[in-house]
Amino acid sequence: MEGSITQEGHRSGFVALAGRPNVGKSTLINAYLGQNVAAVSPRPQTTRLRQLGILTLPNAQVIFVDTPGIHKPLHKLGEHMNVVAQEVLEDADLLLVMFDMSQPPTEDDHRVAERLEGLSSKPPTLVVLNMIDLVPQDKIQERRVAFESLIPDREIHAISSTRGDGREELLNRILELLPSGPRYYPEDEITDAYERDIAADLLRAAALNLLRDEVPHCIAVRIDEYKERNEHGAYISATIFVERESQKGIVIGKGGGMLREIGTLARKEIEAMSGRKVYLKLRVKVLHGWRNDMKALQRLGLGRTQQKN
Question: What whole-number distance in Å separates Cα of residue 303 and Cα of residue 38?
Answer without folding.
Answer: 19
